[in-house]
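debug: dumping io for the single-chain case to check the tokenizer round-trip. Nothing else runs in this session.
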Amino acid sequence: MAEYDIIVIGGGSAGSAVAGRLSEDGTRSVCLVEAGGNNNNFLVKTPGMMPFLLKNANWKFDTVPQKGLNGRIGYQPRGRGLGGSSAINAMIYIRGNKWDYDNWAAMGCEGWSYEDVLPYFKKSEGNERGGDEFHGGDGPLSVSDQKWPNPGSLAFVEAARNLQIPVLDDFNGAKQEGIGIYQVTQKNGERWSAARAYVDPARGRKNLDIRTNSLVERLVIENGRVMGVQLLQGRKRETILAKGAVVLSAGAFGSPHILQLSGIGPAEHLKNKGVDIIVDKPEVGANLKDHIDFVSGYTTESKELIGDSLEGTIRMGKAIFEHRMKRTGIMTTPYAEAGGFWSSGPDVPAPDVQYHFVPAVLEDHGREKVKGHGFSCHACVLRPYSKGTVRLGSTDPAAPPAIDPNFLDDDRDIATLRKGVRHMQRIMEAPPLTDFKPTNRHPIDMSDDNALDTLIRNRADTVYHPVGTCRMGQDDNAVVDNRLKFKGLDGLYIADASIMPEIVSGNTNAPSIMIGERAADFIRADLG
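debug: decoded output
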């Protein structure tokens, strides 16, 4: 059996950071295990090819039927391969709000206040604007301004300005509330995933073994300690061992799934699935939170926006050629080019609604083709009250987990989303966006609560930010402690979005990388 000092399961946003950092000084042997491939190709590197990634480097999970969405089955795309979801996402660089992390500390997660985590955000960040009080300028994760935002995205920002909404150029600084053009995780016009930031520079290290296309079937546990993992590579089954630690970084769906396959989780559920119980841990797979999201779409006569037409196809063909030659132009788009944050009432401690403006018409996560041109905008609830679960759908490790976000189970969530959608429509129907002569694809009487609630329940779904299924905390029910050690077994750490005690007020890629950076420091200190 191969033996390493540390095994990292999952090469996504957090796992890439853990493996990259722990292999830096050459003193420890590290094995990075990833179920997908290398993701080192044209589709991944070209930002504008993101729609095609949803058919390739993607687990393509579905949810169980959602009661709050009129029984619909939701879609849960997650990145598969090195970089994880940072290899298929919209590349938006957002950390969340200062209040989020201070709230984590207030909940008992000592050492996770904003003051504690800011140095790790700065350590990871290589912002082209340079370093300052809030930003890092020389970290491995490249963050850049968009060089070619669509005219529709610029019009969205101006429409907000015309409504006296603050316009920001930095959502990760002193203030979060306002509208603007997002910064993105790109470098020289290419996507800069966590794998490009942390794993690619480490490929020449003799102490780092990268195993792709390797599915983890279960953890190997002996006498209360996680000793290693059992892998399946094609038809070849192998067990690899860890002398120091196993780090589970398979994401908010993958980490609880692997734990439950290994006999760690809610005893009654495991018993019903025929899994031998190693550790009865009821909150493994519990506390799932995700940003429920509504997309409003408008068609336009203007072909300046991205769309499906002969002219649009010719333009995109030219844009692909330009990007291949110069790494410039339309194909640098993250699609969600503009957006921002808004507070739905005076009593909220931080903005509780986020917008993502897309200069194209989106239906069903982009899976439904829409003829013509137009624009869309997402409104999502940043701090939902509804909680769901991740459970075993089957004891087959290759089968997807049973994902139940339990969207809109708490009426406070649809009340917030209702306010957010109405506020969003004011921006979408203000000049200069009106210059595009937009037509709402789903018009209703927005003053009618029942009509709006029906539209939301018929159309809302995730904006791809699941967290919380291996909650961090000091209490006995928490899955990991404040240094990300699993509570109940030795030799196991968890480092990904699953450890969040509460969802952050924004996109989750940058926070996941921050968690990976912190985990590497914790493990390095613990192992000596």
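debug: round-trip ok. The CA atoms of residues 272 and 392 lie 10 Å apart.
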